[in-house]
Amino acid sequence: MKITVFLLLLLVCSDSTAQTTPEADKEIQQPLPQDIRDLLKELAASLAQQKVEITFLKIENQAQEAKLEKQETEITKLKQQVEVKQVAFTVSLSAEGEITVGPFDTLSTLIFKHVVTNIGNAYNQNTGMFTAPVRGAYHFEWYIGAHGFVTAAVLVKNTEQIFLAYEQQSSGYGTSSSGATLLLEAGDTVFLQLWPQTKMYDNRHHHTTFSGRLLFTM
């Protein structure tokens, strides 16, 4: 209602200005009535209050956007954790047929070509290496075969030798196995190496195997 009255007053002033006379000019220069000045002050105060409220709304909106972004980030992390919890592999040395690897003068990384399971794709069948996708506890097992010779394979974490499985078979076929649970950081590698001056045997029955899985994240 007050704003309507103020607009009517402005229209009246505009009409008076259009028909200006010396007497009208003198009247226009007269101070505004007190009630109009009070109305202007009230409108100015109301406008200032609206600006303050708009500022607070902007700040609150920014806070809500930041909160929403944080929640989306947390949801993404939770999804990633669910995905990386599904990590497991089982591989064997021979892809097909009978093979004997070695002997070599130095340690040699064993590349297991026959992939039975590779959930999470953490095992690389081209390099023979398992790469931890996330920090956590992992369990590994390996079984090795000897056919009339000495065989030995060591589990390696990055550059650290962990456990060695060893078998000496003068005739016929023999096996050995071992296992270990390791705390790995994301990016750590785990693999098996053939011990120097030993051999490794496998055939279509897949006696020589390497397996690993994520137990839990940390």
Automatic annotation (TrEMBL):
Residue ranges the record marks as coiled coil: 40-88
InterPro entries named among the record's database cross-references: C1q_dom (IPR001073), Cerebellin_Synaptic_Org (IPR050822), Tumour_necrosis_fac-like_dom (IPR008983)
SUPFAM superfamilies on file: TNF-like (SSF49842)
Subcellular location: Secreted
One annotated Gene Ontology cellular component of this protein: extracellular region
Keywords: Coiled coil, Secreted, Signal
Protein name: Complement C1q-like protein 2
Organism: Lates calcarifer (Barramundi)
